[in-house]
Amino acid sequence: MTTGGESFVEDQLRASNALLRALTQAQADFIRGSEARGILDRLLTVVLELTGSTSGVIGELLTSNGAPPSLRLLASLPREEADTTWELPVRQDAPEQAPSDLRTLVGAVVSTGAPVLSGVPGAEHTFLGLPLESEGERVGLVGLAQRPGGYDTGLLDFLQPFLDACGGLLAGGRNERRRRLAEQEMRQTQEASAERVRLLAERLRLVLESMQDGLWDLDMTTGQLFANRAWLGMLGYAEGELEQSQTTWARLCHPDDVANGERLVQEHLKGAIPLVENEQRLRRKDGGWSWVLTRARVVARDEQGRPLRMVGTNVDITVQKRNEERLRSLIRTLPDLVLRQRADGTYLDYHAAKPEDLAVPPERIIGSNMRQTPFPASLIDKMFMHLGRAIREGTLEVFDYALELPNGREYFEARIRRSGPDEAVSIIRNITERKLFEQRLLQQEEELRRHRDSLEELVRNRSEKLLKATIELEEQQAQLIQTEKLASLGQMAAGVAHEINNPVSYVMSNLGTLDQYVSSLIPLLQLLRELVANPGSASAELLERLGELWKQEDVDYLLTDMPELVEESLVGARRVKEIAQSLRTFAREDTGEPQLVDVNTELASTLKLVWNELKYKCEVKRDFGPLPPVSCHPTQIGQVFSNLLINASHAIETRGEIRIRTRQEGSEVVVEIADTGKGMSQETLSKLFTPFFTTKPRGQGTGLGLSVSYGIIAKHKGRIDVQSQPGQGSTFTIRLPAAQR
């Protein structure tokens, strides 16, 4: 199967080969003396096509003392930009803004002295600026713009041969101008001919040395070979280590490649092919082999047409060959049928793990057309439709089809991807087993669906029964809680009665005393009424009787004692009212809706209710901290506090202490109720919250108090923990979530 990575490698190889061919042609044209401007214009066109850019420039950097640098455009697309010079003021710091056009891009490259990439993929403007150098000197600039996918650093390696070639051409152009100037001077001094030869030799030397590809010039009459350092360097040799001759070259060629190379040369000499283009292996200095792409042509003949001189290039393609071999190895491992064909349906190449999968004999498939296959016409039309779309639009075309074969009906999947301007690669996979599996899977899914429907009906019935049982259980649980609550209320009844009896007793006593006081004051009040009714007829006898009665009933004492009796009676009445309110709060019916409750208030109310259980043998110490409200059922929370306080008092055998502490920890309200009682063993702790478990004598406890309390706290999404050791008392810790504000 061809993957995205493999297609990328193929595209890279084709692009590299296209660029190398263009560079080789440019080098040959330059050697033949073509104008640098035309060569650069053709190279720019190729690079724009290979990178997908829409515009670009190649220019020579001009500098002079005391003047800002400028760029003389040698090649430009669009072409109307050519034959102009851009003034480029140099900045000492890096540009602050991204380039907006090619002119500012070139200025940025001059300022930084390094490649400039601008614009992410999908941006409105994308630029790539690259300096051109030759022998350490910056000679020019290349600017590319508007690549749809943006530019990345990977393009730098790909474009390096192009940059080297352009740098060499610009350097050669500069040397050419220098040569012309020198030629003019030589003509003035009558030494023009000798100087021209020297400059031509220098020009050739500079061009050859500036190229990274191997360049060679063969004198076909003497067999003398001139090669640049890159030609020797790619084989690991330095200058002077090899005799430069045609014989040496023949000795370096792999024996299996000699015949093909000689055949191509002979065909070129006869005019059958315009150019020798041969991939061959050359032995390196270390004994290994390098794959080299050789391109050459005859550039000089004598008057009889005999070849005198052949010029060519060598490019190291070892890496490409290795990648191609890896790709071929990968394809050979595929169990699928792989076909490469043109848009007209002609088969160009194929790979078949099983030759019997081919519709035509293997020896006839190359060059045949898809129209010649024994497929149904409708299937062929479908294949052509997907083939054309894949080549035109670059999409991955995937479709299934079925064929009636001698062994029965079989299914296939075709995947088509463009592999060139007018060709595509198709991968055909037999998916019969997958189709049969899908059919079996559909049958199983249908059967599972029927089973699922049956199970859902069964679950629905059981869920209804479970819901009914749950409702009954909740009702029973509510009854159980109410029963425990009534049991607790019964336990507190005697204590509450005793608590109420004390204030009621002294209220009754005070009322009896007040009744006597009122009886003593009535005669005095009657005399006062007569005196008030007849103030003018007051006699000394009446006043005397009034004074005697005042002393006899000791009215001064009564007036002093009566307010105290009333105040004591009011205190007793308020005490009774508080106990009644606490009892009412404890016994109130739960509304079913949570309420915002102050836990400190609930604790204080519960303490009043159970005080008779505590006061005779417990000293209660409170440490109430500020608390946020808690969303809860106050009746249930009060029942928990009541159970824990009564249990704490029962755990104290003679005299002890109960400590109640409240605080806030994060988002939780914490209540600690600790006693100094007899404590509990680990065995008792393990069963403490088990329903009907009690440590009290038979008949004194139901064993539901702590179990119900645990359930209430859990229902409120809280926790209740206990720590206890025999003889060291117990501490119950309740944690409830604070209400969200």
From TrEMBL:
It holds the Pfam family HATPase_c. It catalyses: ATP + protein L-histidine = ADP + protein N-phospho-L-histidine. CDD domains: HisKA (cd00082), PAS (cd00130). This is histidine kinase. Residues 276-329 form the PAC domain. Residues 434-486 form a coiled coil. Gene3D superfamilies: 1.10.287.130, Histidine kinase-like ATPase, C-terminal domain, PAS domain. It is an enzyme of class 2 (transferase). Keywords: Coiled coil, Phosphoprotein. PROSITE patterns: HIS_KIN, PAC, PAS. Residues 495-740 form the Histidine kinase domain. Its EC number is 2.7.13.3. SMART domains: HATPase_c (SM00387), PAC (SM00086), PAS (SM00091).
